């Protein structure tokens, strides 16, 4: 399969060039971009809904929501108050790539955006290889998924700057151990910033919102 | 990216040839093979542990456990009584393919096996494209993942014969709706056989075990 690997390298190097262009465009306007990645069902859309609800009046948030099929997530984000939301339906592809972002970016008025949130396809493997021009990747993990996931999907946790542990209201309903998941994640990536939240009860979300606000403040 | 698509087609067609060989080998020995697929953390390994615990004395079960990194799952299955367990560490690849199965199959004594369970990499997208020579794919979904997953990842639900809804003990802890998930899944694949289980409390597992036993009986 050396032919496959060669083509894959070429695709990735083309992707990196486009991602660098995106990064330059965003940087020039002082936009902070986060690429949200996780398994299907960890709660990316819900976290973004809550974040919109809390910060929509203070910050101008652009959103790109990727899914294999359906525009469900984009529609949820619009309903949650998202004013600048673009869906990407990958039609089978297991990740977003920089080309897809390049295509939808002109549909967002970048001069009217402070923060850009990109919600990737639910997949703990493939999206880790594709730079989208973001400032950082935010990986979500929910307490119902098992605390060994950082060890089993190390690429994603290595390439993320932030880990959000969601569904902490369900702690105790499985043998998920908070200390163990943190130790596992930090054995892969010692610099990982960690948040513990429940999007359902709201626990921990205030700290998360403050961090998001400070991101923008630090950029200004 | 037409070059990428051409190479991908070639890879898939090579995969299909190897998968046909595997299928023929298994068929010749009357082995029933199931390919277990799901998001990370839906409970594939736990379902297999419980199934081994219940049926290990009646049926000879071979297991192939795939992971991106670590042999954790294979080790758990051995600890649960699995006598013929082979790990596959994909080293970054987001799915198992027929070549990987072809490589480990000689390490299992096929004359001593009634059922072959293959636990795929946790990923709701990519494993759907790769035939491993199985009789059927079994897709797991847990109640904590959201009931819209069949619509958002239709390929996997279309190519599966069976859907196991796991973690039904956590129903009510989210807005997951059992009727909705079934309707969503059947809108993609009307023939899907559905089981509802909790690997934690044991609810529904007896029906699942009976079905597994009948698979083998039907083959004899």
Description:
The first copy, chain A, has 8 helices and 7 strands, in the order αβαβαβαββααβαβα. Chain A is of the alpha/beta class and 220 residues long. The first copy, chain A, has a 7-stranded parallel β-sheet, with helices on both faces. The first copy, chain A, is globular and about 45 Å long. The N and C termini of chain A lie far apart (48 Å). The A-B interface holds A 1, 3-4, 7, 11, 39-41, 67-70, 72, 92, 94, 121-126, 142, 144-146, 148-149, 151-155, 167, 169-170, 173-174, 200 and B 1, 3-4, 7-8, 10-11, 39-41, 67-70, 72, 92, 94, 121-126, 142, 144-146, 148-149, 151-155, 167, 169-170, 173-174, 200.
Summarize the structure.
The structure is a homodimer of 220-residue chains. The first copy, chain A, is of the alpha/beta class and 220 residues long.
Helix and strand layout, with pairings?
The structure is a homodimer of 220-residue chains.
Chain A: H1 2-28, E1 32-37, H2 44-55, E2 61-67, H3 72-79, E3 84-89, H4 98-104, E4 115-119, E5 136-142, H5 149-152, H6 154-159, E6 162-166, H7 178-188, E7 193-196, H8 205-219
Parallel strand pairs in A: 1-4, 1-5, 2-3, 2-4, 5-6, 6-7
Oligomeric status:
homodimer
Q: What is the number of strand segments of chain A?
A: 7
- The fraction of residues assigned to DSSP E strands of chain A is 15-25%
CATH superfamily (homologous) name of chain A? P-loop containing nucleotide triphosphate hydrolases
Specify the structural class of chain A.
alpha/beta
Walk across the major sheet of chain A and give the strand order: 3-2-4-1-5-6-7
Q: How much helicity do the residues of chain A have?
A: 40-55%
Looking at the overall shape, the CATH architecture of chain A is 3-Layer(aba) Sandwich
Taken from the alpha-carbon principal axes, the silhouette of chain A is globular
Number of helices of chain A: 8
**N to C succession of SSEs of chain A:** HEHEHEHEEHHEHEH
Tell me the domain tally of chain A. Answer: 1
Query: What number is the mean pLDDT of chain A?
Result: 95
Query: Which topology of chain A does CATH recognise?
Result: Rossmann fold
Alpha-carbon Rg of chain A, integer: 17 Å
Ranges of chain A with pLDDT <50 over ≥5 residues? none
- Which pair of chains forms the biggest interface, and how many residues does each contribute? A-B, 38 and 40 residues
The first-level CATH class name of chain A: Alpha Beta
Task: Sketch the major β-sheet of chain A.
Answer: 7 strands, parallel
How far is it from the N-terminal to the C-terminal residue of chain A, by CA?
A: 48 Å
